Amino acid sequence: MRKARTGPRVCTVCHAEKAVEEFYIINKATGRISSWCKECKAQKAKEARIAQQGDRPTRRFDSSSPFRICSVCHIEKPAGEFYIKDKKSGRTYSWCKLCHVEKTNSRYFAKKSARLASQEPEPIGTTKVCTVCGKEKDLSEFNWKNRAKGYRKSACRECTTKADAQWKAANIDHVRQKDAEYRAKRRMELVEKQHKWREANPDRYRQIHSKWKRNNKDTVNALTHKRRAQIAGGEGSYTAADWEAIKQRQDYRCLFCGKREPDITLTVDHIVPVSQGGSSYPDNLQGLCKSCNSKKWKRIMDLRFPDPV
Predict the structure, then answer these.
(1) Whole-angstrom Cα distance, residue 147 to residue 153?
(2) Going from the N-terminus, what domains does the chain have, and what CATH number goes with each?
(3) What is the pLDDT of residue 120?
(4) pLDDT in tens, the chain (309 residues)
(5) How would you classify the pairing of strands 9-10 and 17-18?
(6) pTM (2 decimals)?
(7) DSSP line for the chain
(8) Could you tell me whether strands 144-146 and 82-86 are parallel, antiparallel, or unpaired per DSSP bridges?
(9) How many angstroms separate the CA atoms of 60 and 46, rounded?
(10) What is the pLDDT at residue 309?
(11) Rounded Cα distance, 79 and 61, in Å
């Protein structure tokens, strides 16, 4: 058996004398090593790769560079536009996120179309018994559980809707928190979507807005007075809950004529009018009926009951 060399060796390319560890081992059994050093081997491989690619940009990823080139669209993009393949080493995919999503969607929809085309249609008139209400209903009254395999849920759509509503009512704080996080995260997207819907459905929007104003008169009045105070240079604002507390404190009675709701409708009156520098804070508000509020006009009149001792 040939004895492995342990001393220095001269590279046949760069003609430099280097340690035997700087050369690749060709045959571990015989100890034969390459005549080229590792550095020359790497340089030769790099030149061959560049010559093979021609004018195309290199696809190898440089970890020190904040940019890299997508292997599909061949566009230079920031490293953040590529999905991470290995978190430990920081290695990313050679496809950018946009090309990755397009390819994934094309594959998904192609498979979905083929699956739906090969799926047998459901027989007309097929029924199923709901496991919640126990009623026998048409199969179309049950939501899909796995469309690919043709499985439907055991509860009908009506029972599923009721169960969802009960769960939301029991976990209202969790639902509101998730809704607030969703709206905060996609605020601009939701605003743009809402504007587009308004432009496409102006009649429907006016109908919904008018209904909301009829059902939330206290909130509308609070917003109106807030805007009037801002235009007049006044300060302060109040909410619908503040107005309800004021009406409850004066027993839903007009402080001028003494009549009570529902015989009359209480309106917000500023003790010191906004035109004379009054604020819209709750401590400057009192409830008067519409007629008495008009009679008072711009006079400063505090008709509130004294707080009980």
Answers:
(1) 11
(2) 9-52 (3.30.60), 216-296 (1.10.30)
(3) 65
(4) 455 556 788 888 888 888 888 888 888 778 788 888 888 888 888 887 777 665 554 444 455 667 888 888 888 888 888 888 888 877 888 888 888 888 888 888 888 888 777 766 666 668 889 999 999 998 889 998 887 777 889 999 999 999 999 999 999 999 999 999 999 988 988 999 999 999 999 999 999 999 999 999 888 888 888 887 777 777 888 888 899 999 999 999 999 998 998 899 999 999 998 888 888 899 999 999 999 999 888 888 888 865 443
(5) antiparallel
(6) 0.39
(7) -PPPP-S-EE-TTT--EE-GGGEEEEETTTTEEEEEEHHHHHHHHHHHHHHHHTTSPP----TT-SEEE-TTT--EEEGGGEEEEETTTTEEEEEEHHHHHHHHHHHHHHHHHHHHHHSPPPPTT-EEE-TTT--EEEGGGS-EEETTTTEE-SS-HHHHHHHHHHHHHHTHHHHHHHHHHHHHHTHHHHHHHHHHHHHH-HHHHHHHHHHHHHH-HHHHHHHHHHHHHHHHT------HHHHHHHHHHTTTB-TTT--BTTTS-EEEEESS-GGGT---SGGGEEEEEHHHHHHHTT-----PPPPP-
(8) unpaired
(9) 11
(10) 37
(11) 9
Distance separating alpha carbons of residues 247 and 42, to the nearest angstrom: 86
Q: Do residues 93 and 79 make contact, with C-beta atoms less than 8 angstroms apart?
A: no
Measured in residues, the chain has a length of: 309
DSSP of 70-114: -TTT--EEEGGGEEEEETTTTEEEEEEHHHHHHHHHHHHHHHHHH
C-alpha span between 253 and 251 (Å, rounded)? 5
